Amino acid sequence: MKIMINHTSMQPIYEQIMEQIKKQIMQGELQEGDALASVRVLAKDLKVSALTVKKAYDLLEEEGLITTVHGKGSFILGTNPAMLAEQRRREVEIAMEQAVQKGRACGMDDGELLELLELILEP
Predict the structure, then answer these.
(1) What's the confidence (pLDDT) of residue 90?
(2) Quick check: pTM over 0.85?
(3) What is the 3-state secondary structure (H, E, C) of the chain?
(4) Per CATH, is 13-76 categorized as 3.40.50.300?
C-alpha cells in the first residue's frame, strides 16, 4: 500500500489517506481480505499523528470499505462493483459541480459552460 501525503495541500491529511486507499481498492490494487498497515505503523511511515490515520480508517469503515478487528488490524472488505461504480460517479459529479461553480464565479453562463463541456467531450 503506497500513500503519499501532500503537506502543502488544502485537503486534510485524513482525506488524502482515505482517497488514496479508496483509489487502490477501486483499481484492484487492494483486494478483499488484504490487511492495511496498522494505525501506528502508517502514522510513523507518513510522519503524521496516529489520530489522523485512525480518523481515516474509521471513516473508511463507516463507508463499508474496511473492517477493523480489535487486536488483529484493519482489512479490506469485499466490494460490490455497483457500489464502486456509484462512488466513481459521485466523485465525477462532485468535480463537475466544482467546475460549474468555478465557471459561474468567472462569469460564465450555462450556455457557455455547456459549450465548453461539448468541446471537452469531442474526440
Answers:
(1) 87
(2) no
(3) CCCCCCCCCCCCHHHHHHHHHHHHHHCCCCCCCCECCCHHHHHHHHCCCHHHHHHHHHHHHHCCCEEEECCCEEEECCCCHHHHHHHHHHHHHHHHHHHHHHHHHCCCCHHHHHHHHHHHHCC
(4) no
